[in-house]
């Protein structure tokens, strides 16, 4: 009599091979559980000032660590949360459209001066969409500023101010700081604005001062003169730090005092001005929007102080002479639930990573491939109407938790960005009854894609400008 046990084992093995061979990829898809109760929005406690001014800092192994928070907790009480969520996406769309316009103008060489077109001095378009803040000390006064890897010039609102928006802290008073100095219009720093930002510094009514202009696509702006003062990043002093002293500012900037520019410029960027201290290396871990959540901005490259739960994988920062202030990467693929997608646009490479963009933008062919595979794996859930720029939405009012496919970006050098479960869906309603796939399509195939901060949450992202590489590692964000 033939032993049935080996035959049974062979049949099981054949069945397993059949299940795993579909599309040449494993059929047991990679999934993560999203507990909707934890994903729901909760009002933050405390007043705006106490939340913003509670930010901490410390120095460890030669690195400076600043607490980083979501900007919502520096903007006062949210009266209509759903309306705010919709506005955020509208502003984000304006931000991306303005970026794309600037890319085309820079590459074509049509922009010669700030007066020729209403484009930003730096790439940060609308501070309403730049969602993360840190506190630094400038001229002996605390300043809460928005973190922007797409901007070079750091600026704050200054007294006397012809026109200023409402901010949480008192305006910076340059005359009250004994260490403040004006940057001269004939200085190399003033002249470097043309190369670094595409807009030249100019002499104003006071011929010794270097004026700057930042114009945003929606009519928001900041204007003033360049100055230098003593900057403290936690316990780390930075002498003669060059920044913009804004005397005329208008727009939706929330309660922040200004902006911190972490772009790639060789002179005015915070990264370049602190290169001798930190070697041109900085990293951040962006927290979720929960009231108790906080991440960290680390200036310095000692990886032993990171709290990453996965190894750091590095990819090359791609040089772009026409857009030298931005951080470009070569994307080689995207996978959904372990299924590698096929799209022709992956071969063309370049994608921008930006802390000032909320929702990642993909070429239309890539987005359609992502959407189709995601819907295939996340099937059986009731659809919901689209929400602003997001068109793949679901009604989850009958569910307590859902298993969602993993989302990964793959880059040159086998680096991976594993999108956190909270970065896959965008919360449309406060009770998590309606959510949308948190990705959007560009208008045209040839536009530059962008990886937004929503997909970077709970990741340690390491920028090494000296060695022109960028790293990713999963991390549960916490300042402590």
TrEMBL record:
<feature type="active site">
    <location>
        <position position="354"/>
    </location>
</feature>
<feature type="domain" description="Peptidase A1">
    <location>
        <begin position="132"/>
        <end position="473"/>
    </location>
</feature>
<dbReference type="GO" id="GO:0004190">
    <property type="term" value="F:aspartic-type endopeptidase activity"/>
</dbReference>
<dbReference type="GO" id="GO:0006508">
    <property type="term" value="P:proteolysis"/>
</dbReference>
<feature type="active site">
    <location>
        <position position="148"/>
    </location>
</feature>
<feature type="signal peptide">
    <location>
        <begin position="1"/>
        <end position="27"/>
    </location>
</feature>
<comment type="similarity">
    <text>Belongs to the peptidase A1 family.</text>
</comment>
<dbReference type="InterPro" id="IPR032861">
    <property type="entry name" value="TAXi_N"/>
</dbReference>
<dbReference type="InterPro" id="IPR032799">
    <property type="entry name" value="TAXi_C"/>
</dbReference>
<dbReference type="Pfam" id="PF14541">
    <property type="entry name" value="TAXi_C"/>
</dbReference>
<dbReference type="Pfam" id="PF14543">
    <property type="entry name" value="TAXi_N"/>
</dbReference>
<dbReference type="InterPro" id="IPR033121">
    <property type="entry name" value="PEPTIDASE_A1"/>
</dbReference>
<dbReference type="InterPro" id="IPR033873">
    <property type="entry name" value="CND41-like"/>
</dbReference>
<dbReference type="InterPro" id="IPR021109">
    <property type="entry name" value="Peptidase_aspartic_dom_sf"/>
</dbReference>
<keyword id="KW-0732">Signal</keyword>
<protein>
    <recommendedName>
        <fullName>Peptidase A1 domain-containing protein</fullName>
    </recommendedName>
</protein>
<dbReference type="InterPro" id="IPR001461">
    <property type="entry name" value="Aspartic_peptidase_A1"/>
</dbReference>
<dbReference type="InterPro" id="IPR001969">
    <property type="entry name" value="Aspartic_peptidase_AS"/>
</dbReference>
């Amino acid at each position: 009599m033939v032993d049935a046990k080996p035959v049974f084992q062979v049949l099981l093995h054949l069945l397993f091979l059949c299940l795993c061979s579909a599309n040449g990829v494993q059929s047991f898809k990679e999934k993560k559980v999203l507990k909707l109760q934890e994903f729901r929005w909760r009002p933050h406690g405390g007043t705006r000032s106490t939340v913003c001014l509670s930010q901490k800092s410390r120095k460890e192994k030669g690195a400076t660590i600043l607490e980083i928070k979501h900007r919502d907790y520096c903007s006062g009480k949210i009266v209509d949360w759903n309306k705010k969520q919709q506005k955020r996406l509208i502003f984000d769309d304006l931000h991306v459209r303005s970026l794309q316009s600037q890319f085309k103008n820079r590459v074509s060489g049509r922009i010669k001066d700030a007066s020729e077109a209403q484009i930003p001095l730096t790439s940060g378009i609308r501070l309403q969409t730049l969602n993360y803040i840190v506190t630094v000390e400038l001229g002996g006064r605390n300043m809460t500023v928005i973190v922007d890897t797409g901007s070079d010039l750091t600026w704050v609102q200054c007294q006397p101010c012809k026109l200023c928006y409402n901010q949480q802290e008192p305006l910076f008073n340059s005359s009250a700081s004994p260490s403040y100095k004006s940057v001269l219009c004939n200085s190399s720093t003033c002249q470097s604005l043309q190369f670094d930002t595409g807009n030249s510094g100019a002499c104003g009514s006071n011929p010794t001062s270097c004026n700057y202009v930042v114009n945003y696509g929606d009519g928001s702006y900041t204007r003033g003169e360049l100055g230098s003062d003593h900057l403290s990043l936690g316990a780390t002093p930075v002498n003669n730090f060059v920044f913009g002293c804004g005397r005329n500012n208008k727009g939706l900037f929330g309660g922040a005092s200004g902006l911190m520019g972490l772009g790639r410029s060789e002179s005015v960027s915070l990264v370049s001005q602190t290169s001798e201290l930190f070697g041109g290396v900085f990293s951040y871990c962006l927290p979720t929007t929960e009231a108790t959540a906080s991440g960290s901005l680390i200036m310095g490259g000692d990886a032993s102080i990171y709290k990453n739960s996965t190894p750091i994988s590095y990819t090359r920062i791609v040089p772009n002479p026409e857009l030298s202030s931005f951080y470009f990467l070569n994307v080689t693929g995207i996978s959904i639930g372990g299924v590698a997608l096929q799209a022709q646009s992956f071969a063309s490479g370049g994608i921008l990573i930006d802390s000032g963009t909320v929702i990642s933008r993909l070429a239309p062919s890539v987005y359609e491939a992502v959407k189709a595979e995601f819907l295939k794996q996340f099937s059986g859930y009731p659809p919901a109407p689209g929400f602003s720029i997001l068109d793949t939405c679901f009604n989850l009012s009958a569910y307590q938790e859902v298993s969602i496919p993993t989302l990964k970006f793959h880059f040159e050098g086998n680096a991976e960005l594993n999108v956190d479960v909270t970065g896959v869906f965008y919360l449309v309603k406060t009770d998590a009854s309606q959510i949308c796939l948190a990705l959007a399509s560009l208008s045209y195939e040839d536009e530059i894609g962008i990886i937004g901060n929503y997909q970077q949450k709970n990741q340690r992202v390491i920028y090494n400008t000296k060695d022109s590489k960028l790293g990713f590692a999963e991390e549960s964000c916490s300042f402590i």
